[in-house]
Amino acid sequence: MENRWYHLPKSGVLEKLSSSPNGLTSAEAVKRIAEYGYNELEMKKEEGLFSLFVRQFKSPLIYILLFAAIISFAVKKNTNGIVIFAVLMVNAVTGFIQEARARKSMAALKELSAPKARVLRDGRQVEVPTKELVPGDIIIMESGTRVPADARVLDSVRLQVNESALTGESHPVYKITDPIETEVGVPEMLNMVFSGTVVVSGRGTAVVVETGLKTQLGQMAEIIQSAPEPKTPFQRKMEKLGRFIIILVSAQVGIVFLVGFLIRRMPFYDIFLVVLSQLVSSIPEGLPVALTVALAVGMQRMAKRKALIRKLYAVEGIGCVSVICSDKTGTLTRNEMTSKRLSTVDSDAEIGGVGYRMEGKLSASGKDMEKLLAAGVLCNNSAVGVSDGRKELEVDGDPTEIAYLVAALKAGFNLEELRKKYPRIDELPFDPDVRMMATEHTTPEGRHLVCVKGAPEKVVELCAEYITSEGNVREMGKDIQQEAALPPVSQL
C-alpha cells in the first residue's frame, strides 16, 4: 500500500485527503471524479459482434475446409464448394448465437447487480452508485454491507468483516480505529477495510483512501487480466487432430499425385482433379458442426442449472474437472456451517439436515435444550428469514451464529417473537482473549437476563447451577464442571 494509510491516525488520514468526519460536498465529489476517475475496474475491451463471428472460424479443421472450398470453386466444382461453405456457415452461426446470447445474459446480470453505497455527502447520509465514490468520501457500514472501496476505519462498534474474497481466510476480522505502527500485510491491517469484502456484524464508518484499480482488488484484477488466456483441453485436442489430418491428407494426396503424374503419366489437369476429390472427401466436414452442436447443447444445460458460459469451448473445460483441491476453507465451499449436536449436562440431541435449509429436526427435547437454543438466539447478531418459494433461508451475518439460528428454527422457535419478548439492552462483543460474548436483556417481568456464549471451559467456569431436562435447577459441582467443559470426543 503506497501511502501506508494504516500508519496514520484518523485525523492524519482526513487531513491528507482534505476531508472531514462530515464527508465531502457534492461539488467536491464531482471534482474528484474528474481527478481520480470512477471507482470501477477497467475490464478488457469486449470484442465486437463481427470479431465474435470471425472467431468461430479459428480452428485447423475449419482452415482445411476453407481451403478445400476455395479449391473446389477454382476448378469449377461449385456443388462441393457450396456444400462446404454451407456447413461452415451453419457451424459459425450456431456458435455465434450461443456466445452472443450468453454475453447478453452476462450484461443483464451486471446491470442488475450494480451496487450502491451509503455515504456522507453535504453532512447527511445519501445513497450513491458505488462507481461514484472518491477518495475522501465517508462510507457507512453495517451488517451485510459490501465494502465498496479501500478505506481507513474511523469508527467501529463491534465491526467484523469477512475478507475471505481477498485473503482466503473464512473467519471474520475485528476492525479497530487505532493506527498500526509496524509494517504489516493486508490480513493484519485491522484498521482498514477493503473493496469486495463484506461486513458480517457490527457497524462503523470509514474514509475512502483508494478507488478503482488502485484498490487491493483492482491490483488483483490487473494481474488476472494481464495473464494470457489458456486454451481448453478440447481446443488443444482439436488443434492436434487438425494437424494430424493435414499431415495425413497431404501425404495421401502427395503419393496419389506422384503415382498418377510421374508413373502413370496422367495429364496434369486430370490428376489434379483426382487429388482434389480425394482432398475434399478425406476431410470430415460434418465434424465441426457436430462438435459445435454438442457444445451448444451443453451450454444450454448449464444455463438451466443457472450457470452462464461465455465461450462455447469453456463447456468442455468445465466438464473435464473431476477434482478440486483447495487449501483454504470457505473459498470454494458454500461458506455455511451446520449445528449437528446439542449437548447439555443432562442430555444430548442430534440435529438433522445440512446448511441453511429447513430440513431436519432435533432428536430430543427438554427444558435444558430450550434454554440453550434461546440463549443461542438472543446472544446473536445475525439474522435469518424464510422466503416464499425458496428451500434455503435468507441469511445475513456470521456463519457460526447463523448455524445457531437455523438449529432454533428446526426446534420450532419464532426468532422474531423471542427477541421482542427479551429485548437487548447491552452487549459485550466477543473478545478473543476472553473467548466469550455476552448480551443483556430485559424479561417480561422487568428482570435482567444475561446470555453468554463462548468456549465451553470459559463459560462453565462462571456457572454455579445448571438446569435439567425436566426444568429443575441443580448445583454444578467441580466434577460436573470438568465434564461439561470437556465433553467426550464423540460429542465434539
Give a verbal description of the structure.
42% of the residues lie in helices and 18% in strands. The chain is α+β, with helices and mostly antiparallel strands. The protein has three domains: 5-39 and 133-225, Calcium-transporting ATPase, cytoplasmic transduction domain A; 49-109 and 230-319, Calcium-transporting ATPase, transmembrane domain (Up-down Bundle); 341-491, Calcium-transporting ATPase, cytoplasmic domain N (3-Layer(aba) Sandwich). The strands form five sheets. Strands 1, 2, 3, 4, 5, 6 and 7 form a seven-stranded antiparallel sheet that branches. The chain has a three-stranded antiparallel sheet with strand order 12-13-14. A hairpin with a 2-residue loop joins strand 1 (116-121) and strand 2. Helix 4 packs antiparallel against helix 5 (78-112) and helix 12 packs antiparallel against helix 13. It is elongated. Residues 488-492 have low confidence and may be disordered.
Overall, the morphology is: elongated
Integer count of domains: 3
Helix content: 40-55%
User: Pairing-aware structural class of the strands and helices?
Assistant: alpha+beta
Q: Please indicate the percent range of residues in DSSP E strands (runs of 2 or more).
A: 15-25%
Number of strands: 16
**Number of helices in the DSSP assignment:** 16
The major pleated sheet works out as: 7 strands, antiparallel
CATH topology group of the largest domain:
Calcium-transporting ATPase, transmembrane domain
Name the CATH homologous superfamily of the largest domain.
Calcium-transporting ATPase, transmembrane domain
The stretches of 5 or more residues where confidence is low (pLDDT under 50) are 488-492
Please identify the top-level CATH class of the largest domain: Mainly Alpha
CATH architecture of the largest domain: Up-down Bundle
Radius of gyration: 33 Å
User: What is the residue-mean pLDDT, rounded to a whole number?
Assistant: 79
In whole angstroms, the N-to-C terminal distance is: 42 Å
